[in-house]
Amino acid sequence: MSFAFTEEQAMLREMAARFVEEVGGSQAVRAAAASEPGHDPAVWRQMVELGWSGIIVPESAGGLGLGQIELSILAAACGRALLPSPLIATMLAARALSIAGDEEQCARWLPPITRGEITATVALTHPEGRHLPGDVGVRLRREGQDCVLDGAAGFVLDGHVADLLLVAARDGEAIRFVAIPAATEGLAATRQNSIDIGRAVARIDLTAVRAGPEAVLPGDAFEALLLHANATLAAEQMGAAAAALDRTVDYARQRIQFGQPIGAFQAVKHALADLALLVEAAESAVWYAAAVADQRPEELPIAAATAKLMASDALSRCAADMIHYHGGIGFTWEHDAHLYFRRARAAAGLFGDTDRQLAIIADGMTTDREMLRAA
Amino acid sequence: MRLDFTPEQEAFRSEVRGWLDRELDGPFRHVRGMEGTSEGIDKRFAWERHLGRSGWNRLAWPEAFGGRAASLMEQVIFHEEYARSGAPGRLSHVGLELVAPTIMAYGSDGQRARFLEPTAMVDIVWAQLFSEPNAGSDLANVQTRARLEDRPGGPVWVLEGQKIWSSFAQYSQWGMALVRTEPGSSGAKGLSMLLVPLDGKGVDIRPIRQMTGGSSFNEVFLDGAETAAENVLGTPGEGWRVAMATLTFERGVSTLGQQMSFRTELDRVIRAARSNGAIADPAIAKRLARAEAELRVMRYTALRMLGDTGLSRAGLTYKLYYTSWHQRLGELAMDVLGPAGDIAEPGGDAWRLQKMYLESRSDSIWAGTSQIQRNIIAERGLGLPREARPPRQEPARQEPARQEPAKQERA
Ligand SMILES: Cc1cc2nc3c(=O)[nH]c(=O)nc-3n(C[C@H](O)[C@H](O)[C@H](O)COP(=O)(O)OP(=O)(O)OC[C@H]3O[C@@H](n4cnc5c(N)ncnc54)[C@H](O)[C@@H]3O)c2cc1C
């Protein structure tokens, strides 16, 4: 049992931090997020060159064959700067294919994803944004060999630019992912006007979208994918929370009022200490969930829910206090604080809000013996 | 990052678990589940001596001091298993976790030879005599004085003053006392750490009744109490440095295993919520789920700290995190019980929860209050500037200005 990063993981962390620092300046991030695709394709190409688009793709399909820990490392690094890219969306699609796809589907889609020839995403959220168990907004019916999809999904990460959509659709008792290229007839993707101006999300409408049997992933991946999505998102939130805290601490050391740095006043320093508690808690939960995803998938429901819960708490409080402890300047459009605040609100709701995570944890409340094993 | 324990660690866990279950099902049946600071004191000391004779009290000690030099992970495993087994709360914590490591770090060979073995065997029980009526958070304001005097058998320190909040002093044979040995000094300078016998003349120990009704801490009046000149830990004048080391041990590994007793308490709350139906209240269910998640996180943080050397920011946040959690658990327990919790009869789960509720109010005070913890996190963890402070009041006939000592807060 060890909670330390391996040497390779530590190196990846450093490298990712350096890269994000280089490309993730405030102006660049704002311009990218406001652009039509919602990210800078040149930055994404660099990520592809670094191998990030294949970080969790098996080596047999040309990827790096690494795990959730490594993906969480990248998500956390991007989260610090709120750097937009199709990384999370594409890796969730790759994860869905790996879990539920057959050999042919994996061979068809994973290599072009890894090479950066296409981006992909998963459509698994009800258009209203709620995440009740088994609740999706797309229905699948069979017509001979083919299947036909009707309905809608919302909050689809980078859904308006993804080349491939893995759409979660109700198929009788089951929920299946169906691989639909963006150009398919009957599919319309529209970017939504999200409070989080730093992340592009889209609504997907499907009207009699027809797909062959080879498009339906045979495995059962819906629940597992939600857990992976939350584990990954939590890493991104945690990175953002840590950055919001760091930037606020820096300001509190520099801003002088009443003849001393405001960070010397206990009312300020104690509030920042409380934020440090939340960030540390989120870190613990995020890395634990990532390790669980790789090593003990059976424990992922509680671990991912805990990570999401803690990271949402941390980011919400850090972002709100980032605004507050910057004073008037924190309330301006030019200051980045509102970008973190907007992200905090939207990310907490994505893939299941705090109440949903608490419900998952309540379902799994265990005895001491089980917890010992869980260590 | 690996989640699995090694086969050696698993084997160690079985060894600990097997031993504890055997003893607590057998000869020490009667101490199982004893809690708090007043229940079954004699039986619990007998149990702790048994632990000592069986080698468990020295698990972490280097082999040179008769220890087993267990790894941090093994220590955590031991503490976890200890709590899981329902073994009683420890009474010799001060000696084993605070005094012994300080003696190992600062003691002379003679002091090590004299004190370590009997401390491990719980033949010497120790009290930590740091706090005074006017030296709490501001520990450097200690006013108890000691001066060297000649006696026929050799020179001795003679102590005058008052200590307070001294846990378990009423059961202790020795105390580790932070005292002022340089007349006219103030603040962190001129302090020394003395090892003082508490069963001699000039020592008056008076238990203080706590808000729980029980008495775990005491007033200790030192009125001409004596200890041999050689019983100074470190050099005279070095007391502050020694005290800081002790306070670092105070939030060391021994606190990591306690999550398992928190586990026992949380399970008790969940059980109560299931049996009285409170769990059907969504607000209660959510608070329980949150407590569960946070307890897990506490454990992950503890494990993360083991990977670190020194006090990382995670380490600095740990005490505030777990004590805040524990106080919230107390409040949740009472909300789960409802009015029935207010009239609980001694013995049952409800009564234990009510006790926990009351006991937990001390968590934000001992070992550095929550405000002091926040100062430490902010100043050492986040690098925020220290608060401006007025210069310390100088005692009479002193040279004018004196440098503020580097660190005065109780860690
Ligand atoms: C159960 C229990 C067991 C204990 N056992 C021992 C023991 O065995 N040995 C021992 O030596 N001591 C022991 N103590 C004493 C403990 O260390 C002190 O109570 C603690 O350090 C606080 O000191 P105080 O009680 O004088 O409160 P004060 O220091 O007077 O604090 C009062 C309030 O003021 C706040 N405050 C103080 N200074 C500041 C500041 N700079 N900024 C902001 N707020 C501040 C505090 O947070 C607190 O809320 C024990 C205490 C308890 C409750």
Would you give an account of this structure?
The complex is a heterodimer of chains A (375) and B (411). With 375 residues, chain A is α+β, with helices and mostly antiparallel strands. Helices cover 52% and strands 15% of the residues of chain A. Chain A folds into three domains: 7-119, Orthogonal Bundle (Butyryl-Coa Dehydrogenase, subunit A, domain 1); 121-215, Butyryl-CoA Dehydrogenase, subunit A, domain 2; 222-374, Butyryl-CoA Dehydrogenase, subunit A, domain 3 (Up-down Bundle). Chain A contains twelve helices and nine strands. In chain A, the strands form three sheets. Chain A has a four-stranded antiparallel sheet with strand order 2-3-7-6, with no helix packed on it. Chain A has a three-stranded mixed sheet with strand order 1-4-5, covered by helices on one side. In chain A, α4 (68-81) packs antiparallel against α8, α7 packs parallel to α9 and α8 (266-295) packs antiparallel against α9 (300-325). The longest helix of chain A is centred in the middle third of the chain and has 33 residues, at 222-254. Chain A is globular. Chain B has 411 residues and is an alpha+beta fold. Chain B has three domains: 7-91, Orthogonal Bundle (Butyryl-Coa Dehydrogenase, subunit A, domain 1), CATH 1.10.540; 126-237, Butyryl-CoA Dehydrogenase, subunit A, domain 2; 251-364, Butyryl-CoA Dehydrogenase, subunit A, domain 3 (Up-down Bundle), CATH 1.20.140. Chain B is 42% helix and 13% strand. Chain B has helices at 7-25, 41-53, 72-84, 93-106, 109-120, 239-250, 259-276, 282-306, 313-337, 349-359, 370-381; strands at 126-129, 145-149, 156-167, 174-180, 191-197, 203-207, 217-228, 232-233. Chain B has a four-stranded mixed sheet. A four-stranded antiparallel sheet of chain B has the order 2-3-7-6, with no helix packed on it. In chain B, β2 (145-149) and β3 form a beta hairpin. In chain B, α8 (282-306) packs antiparallel against α9. Chains A and B meet through α7, β9, α8, α9 and α11 of A and α3, α7, α8, α9 and α11 of B.
